[in-house]
Amino acid sequence: MAPRRLGFWQRFAVVLVKPVLTVWTRRTWRGMEHLRRDGGIIIVPNHISHADPLVSAHFIYDAGRWPQFLGKASVFRVPVIGWILHRCKQIPVERGSVEAVKSLDKLVAALDEGGAVVIYPEGTTTREPQLWPMKGKTGAARLALATGAPVIPVAMVGPERMFDPRTARIGLRPRTPVTVVAGPPVDLSRWAGATPTRAILEEMTDTIMLRIRDLVAEIRGGTPPPLWQRPARSGTREVSE
């Protein structure tokens, strides 16, 4: 990425974070060609660790794009931190309120401006015991339907060695191996122009998550399990094949 395309605070973030990750990780990057160099794209990674946003940001940056993550709007109201996040073109999102509609407008605007928007469709780190992807939420599907922007699946394995959410263990060993693979855009053409009903959005989301899961399986090997869903209150578990 040409430095002239970045603002001061974006360059500052790169100078601050990238050298640390370069020492901390031993990287295997594949599929960068699927993150086209211009135009709006929606990047949907699996979420296995609190460390993986750093890894995915590193991958996206090395692919020639500036990653724009979603963050709780309350964080953007924190003095200094919020100001820097805005300058780094991160996107505040309101949750659980009527302001959520305005948040969608911000995401649409970012894509219209050619941004690389990163959405974790699972909404949180996976609760699947072996860290396979679980059923996703519908935000990425809704945004794709509203904009027609390509949805790029990204799978990663290794950030859990940097921070394991199951044990809260931090691994500081230099050159921790991490693998990140981007796939071609998910084929969502059958839903082009569809009304965003709950059923449609859930079908699209399952298609996205299954593609991410299959990419994870390509890295890990073996047969992937069905998408995991949090147990219902009765203690039963629902899955999607």
Description:
This protein has 241 residues and is an alpha/beta fold. The chain is built from eight helices and eleven strands. It has helices at 8-24, 52-62, 73-76, 81-87, 100-112, 139-147, 159-162, 198-220, and strands spanning 25-30, 41-45, 67-72, 91-93, 116-118, 151-157, 163-164, 169-170, 176-182, 227-228, 239-240. It has a seven-stranded mixed β-sheet, with helices on both faces. It has a two-stranded antiparallel ribbon with strand order 7-8. It is globular. The N and C termini lie far apart (39 Å).
Task: Kindly summarize this structure in a few lines.
By secondary structure, the protein is an alpha/beta fold.
Write the layout of secondary structure elements.
Blueprint: H1 8-24, E1 25-30, E2 41-45, H2 52-62, E3 67-72, H3 73-76, H4 81-87, E4 91-93, H5 100-112, E5 116-118, H6 139-147, E6 151-157, H7 159-162, E7 163-164, E8 169-170, E9 176-182, H8 198-220, E10 227-228, E11 239-240
Parallel strand pairs: 1-9, 2-5, 2-6, 3-4, 3-5
Antiparallel strand pairs: 6-9, 7-8, 10-11
Helix pairs in contact: 6-8
